Amino acid sequence: MSRRKVSGLNHMPEAVTLGRFLEQQKLEPLREDPLFQEEMLALAIQTLSFSSRESGLSKGGNNGLPGKSLSLPLAGSHVHLEDQGKYLRLRIAEGEEKTPRTQGSFLCAFSGTWEDFCTQAADWMEREKGRILGACEGFTRNLTEQITQGYGLSILAELKKTLGVDLFLLDKHFKVLSWEGGGRFPFHPVSFVTPKLSHFKSMDLLLETPLGIGKWNDAQYKELPLSWYPLAGHQGVLGYIGLGIEQGELNPVGRLFLYKAAVLLYFELAKAQSVEDTERQHYRDFLFDLLYNNFDSLEVVQSRGKLWGMDLTKPHLVVVGEIPGYDPDSMDQLAFQELLDTVSTALRSQPRTIFLERNDQIVLLYPLEGMIPLSQWEATAKKLLSPLLILLEGLEEERSMMFGVGNLYPSARFIHRSFQEAKSALELGQLFNLQERVILFQDLGVMRLLLNLEQQELEDFRNEVLGPLLKFDQENNLHLEETLLAYLASDGDLNLAGDRLFLHPNTLRYRLKKAAEVLDRDLNSLETRMNLFIALKIGRLKSLWQE
């Protein structure tokens, strides 16, 4: 696809370039100057400064340039002009004015007085500034009038007309709010890869905010350029503008107009966000009451749910998910937010699913048409979670999620119970290093019973069964408790247990023999194995008691 510069299109003022400046001042570059490069003429100007060969200081003539640069409210290059008698030396730099990076320099033939030239250049810069700011003010006034008349998002059509590029607007949940295609873009929305916050160098809504690179999902549009402009401010990222251009195509004048429109769009989204936040808080309050059983009767639960579009007369499968080991105080908060965005996007294919984020976990309530046999719970849960599981397969291990699933009950009055079971399944699945992504509470066996007993009673049982072995481990370094748990969890398979512990089978046999001696028990007895396994599991449960 050919690359074109987006400039001078439709209603947008012509850019202020070095070539136009030289043309207006009737200056001709010395093309035989080895430092001259033709592409320099296309560079946009942000500042002009002057210095005389005689004084070496920035100075003006009778226009009184007071030793400071003349600036335009645009991003661009810094151009410094030096009086060298019959020639002018133009030095060009980019970046911050105080710490510029050199782009190049060249000579121009020069006749006339330095003072007159400085005056003419300053007058031209002021006219250019007035031309651009006047056009921008008219553009902004037009957009503001549309907003005050209640046509907030329609300003995107005006921005398209001014920039001459196709574009569209997303909210922070990546929902398309407005689509202005017909040029490079199709007339109707097509699927795109959602923008990632971590892909942007800056999230501040500034004139200099760089565009992010976008991609399309459909292979037929892979050559179609897409760039993202984040709409961010004190309320965070509220949306994105997608533009049908590559990153370097929009000139500084276009960037100014884009910035002005983006500020107004941000405030429009902020107003909508304020209303949404109020509704969302009421919605969250209701879900918290539902999950913690804060209702007086089933009738109240069902009637309140109906107000939010939920049919709580049907059974709901409750799922809790989290990233194992995720620290909410770590620097990985951006990654967690991106993961939530991914989950939110995936759930669009299941509009009836109830979704809540709480304490760095996600809670999902899947409505079913009716009760299903216990033997189908696991398959049903994995089928409902399949859109998320497929998406999570492509993530790094440390950013993937585990899910706990509570038991299924016929009445919404027991959703709170299923929620607690799902949390317990998730906790125990991580505690015992289960390798499954989806862990059902019903599959936890005896551990379900242990969760409901008094901690002191469990601790007493553990000490009665394992007391001598625990004391031996404290005084020696054989790790008999860990060895016994691995052996019993492997159903007595020495090779499997040895692999888990990275031990030779002979070493494992020695440890098991020592454990039997210390405990004075027969490890081949089924009752002994059962008591030992429960006591060992209680030891793992203790890590949860500290919470």
Automatic annotation (TrEMBL):
Residues 299-428 form the CdaR GGDEF-like domain. Residues 481-538 form the PucR C-terminal helix-turn-helix domain. PANTHER family: CARBOHYDRATE DIACID REGULATOR, DNA-BINDING TRANSCRIPTIONAL ACTIVATOR ADER. Belongs to the CdaR family. This is PucR C-terminal helix-turn-helix domain-containing protein.
